[in-house]
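User
New here, help please:
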Amino acid sequence: MPYSAWSAQKVEQQPQNSDIRVLIDVSGSMEKNDPKNLRIPALRLLVGLLPAQTTAAVWNFGTKTKPLVPLGPSDEQWKIKANQASTIIHSKDFYTNIGLALDTAIAGWGDKKPDSTPRSIILLTDGMVDISKDDKKNIAERNRILKELLPKIVKTGAQIHTIALSKNADHDFLKQLSTKTDGGYEQTDSAEQLERIFLRLFEKTTKVDTVPLVDNTFQVDESILELTLLVFKAKDAEPTEVIEPDKNNYQRNNKPNYVKWQSERNYDLITITRPKVGEWSLNAQTDPDNRVMVVTNLQIQTGRIPNNIFSGETLNIALFLTDNNKKITDDNFLQFTSMSAKQTYPNKNRWFLHDNGLRGDKEANDGVYNVSINQSLSLGKHKFVLQAKSNTFQREVNYSLLVHEIDLINNRVMRTEKNNKSLHQILITPNIEFIRAKGLQLSAVLVTGKLPLANHSNIERLEDLDNTHSINLKQKDTNILEWTYKTNKLNPEKDYYVIVHLLGKTRNGRAIDYISSPIQLNIPKVETSTTPVSPLAEQIPEKTISSPQQQAPAPVAEATAEIDEAIEPEEDSGWLMGIIITLIANIVLGGSAWFGYRKWKQGREASYADITGELE
């Protein structure tokens, strides 16, 4: 039965067209980092993969930015021009004017996001902002890009995908360009990896369907109109051979007229129109980056999936099938289809998606299969294969992302002694450098006793923890981004941890579901010291202790919210006095807490620098 016969309805999905601008560094240092000029076959691979409905342009940049291929639809004529122009790529320029290159690439985009067409910039460089022999001018230009140009690019909705082709590149700068636009970041010291990197960025910038390639075999169904084989090959490898379902086989030198075959040193790119239905195979070396890409009316679709998330954030994946761009909802078809998300790096995991309203599915029988993933998302790079499979067809989407160690909340834990009772307090403020202030929802639980793991930052669901109960984070003023919780009912013989659940949006508008690392609430009591106390300290009636490990930047306003659990009334003391008391207590303790705070602060700055490149 034709696929279009199944019941379908329109739904928002990934656009089929894209706008891609490519910037290639041709400064003199490339002579060392890309001596074989492998930028040429890497660009040709990207050009060969681009769907015809994509709009694209390529520039060389050094001191100036020069067009390599003008902006236009990536049809057959555009691709011929691009392949011919790729030979112009060189390594002779004096400077690396990244700012001018970005200014050139975004020309014509205006200052608003497009209605549908995704925008992407691929920036390949081996260096840093270098426009002058005067370092002050280089620093000023770097700051201009980050403070003026980058926010402008964010407004256009474009993603910047950066490639650092050297260990000496300005990685912090390139990470900030990619992360703050939710683009991909790739780093390699070897130009030999460029073709594979361009493949991964192609999969991030365009909507492409693939079918599984297992042991060099794959299945073609009746809905596939065209397929493209990407086969990576080792040095001195035997020629690639294609074997069709009827056992007709051929290589590049005897291919039939319905086959186009582009051969480079490290890969073959083979396009076949009207492929025969059945099982195909390859005589070639197996490689995890080999692909079978297809043009078809029966497509696997995803909702918006980010390229960057934060440690503790839940990754929500939604998959559905479309026929001629209409979502398939008929259970007579879907009941024979399974959906899964398979993690291939760094761990081997697999999750099955459901459309029954249970186990993470948002709504039963709506044709959309959902799964929420958290527990396996360690820091660094992750790779997934999203798959739809039945007896008559198979579809895949290859997907990768980076998990960053950035806290989305700041916290300050304090302990105050009065009348032989300990008042424990925590103040929570959101990290508005990365999340929007508007529409935030914060909740929390209190965990009693030891946590099962030393580092329990990834907790799938708060309710799964033993010995927990909800606590009330109070925000006294909705115009001030701070929440507080206070209690004097903690058992001194036990440990207590606060875990915060945040729902909101990133600065790019992406919805986030974030669970914080556990924050210890019962910081130790300061023992009586034999060190002489200053006269000023003797006049202070209370002792206030701050946790240096959890201390955040100064609170944005006074914490005057009411105490959440019944305690004796006390006079409200301002945060300034609390800070003064804290400093004096630290002096009394010989400065140990202060140095602990400095150590924490340095570590925190290192984490921020890793993603932002600089602290403001």
Observations:
- DSSP finds eleven helices and 34 strands in the chain.
